[in-house]
Amino acid sequence: MREYWLVDPLKNRIRVYRRGAEGSFPLVLDLSRETGGVLTTPVLPGLSVEVAEVLAESA
């Protein structure tokens, strides 16, 4: 595994961790619904996910 995302719908936050040089997984991105943004990853070129879509409020 080279990267993983933790999606916390209760805190409206997405954290991305990517394998570092020593094999550890440092935090590389910390986004929330309030800050918005687009998630991309070098692991899957071309993938683009709006944070607001992932953390959309359910009806």
What is the number of E strands?
5
- Taking strands numbered 1, 2, ... along the chain, how are they ordered across the largest sheet? 1-2-3
State the helical fraction: under 10%
Instruction: Compute the CA-based radius of gyration.
Output: 12 Å
- Tell me the domain tally: 1
SS-based structural class?
Answer: mainly beta
Q: Low-confidence parts lasting 5 or more residues at pLDDT below 50? A: none
Shape: globular
Mean pLDDT: 91
Question: Can you give a write-up of this model?
Answer:
The chain has one domain. 7% of the residues lie in helices and 37% in strands. It has one helix at residues 51-54, and strands at 3-8, 13-18, 27-32, 38-39, 49-50. The strands form two sheets. Strands 1-2-3 form a three-stranded antiparallel beta sheet. It has a two-stranded antiparallel sheet with strand order 4-5. The model has no long low-confidence stretch (mean pLDDT 91).
What keyword list fits this structure?
single chain, 59 residues, mainly beta, 3-stranded antiparallel β-sheet, 1 helix, 5 strands, 7% helix, globular
